[in-house]
Specification:
Helix content is about 75%, strand content about 0%. It starts with a helix and ends with a helix. It is an all-alpha fold.
Length: about 130
């Protein structure tokens, strides 16, 4: 995956982590895990995460992040959705704003709601 696209996708992960106004170390580790899955080393992961955090804080809309994702394969979208749900569930609660955001993201990236729900249940069952 191109680094530019990865920065945007990581920025979406940061946005989801910030939606409940608590950005934890556990959430950062989930995001770094996602970045490293594309064969980036620890220092590159840190750099991409910093760029993503800045990109997210400078952005006012989701579209710039989700436009990058909707062109990806279902396999990549599924991996992204798994990490988004891991971030949301990492604090052991899912509020209405987080659920609403995930439904919006599904629509924006053309991802099946049912598959998103299945991913959410799988991650909840792993807790």
């Amino acid at each position: 995956m191109k680094k530019k696209n990865l920065n945007g996708i990581a920025a979406l992960l940061v946005h989801v982590a910030n939606i409940d106004e608590t950005y934890t170390e556990k959430e950062k580790e989930i995001i770094k895990s996602f970045i490293s899955s594309f064969s980036y080393n620890e220092s590159e992961c840190e750099s991409i995460l910093k760029e993503a955090e800045q990109l997210e804080s400078d952005s006012i809309q989701l579209l710039s992040f989700t436009n990058l994702i909707k062109k990806e394969s279902l396999e990549i979208k599924t991996e992204i959705m798994e990490h988004l749900w891991k971030i949301i569930i990492s604090d052991k609660s899912v509020d209405q704003y987080e659920s609403s955001l995930m439904r919006r993201i599904c629509g924006l990236i053309y991802f099946p709601d049912k598959l998103s729900g299945d991913i959410k249940l799988k991650i909840l069952n792993q807790q």
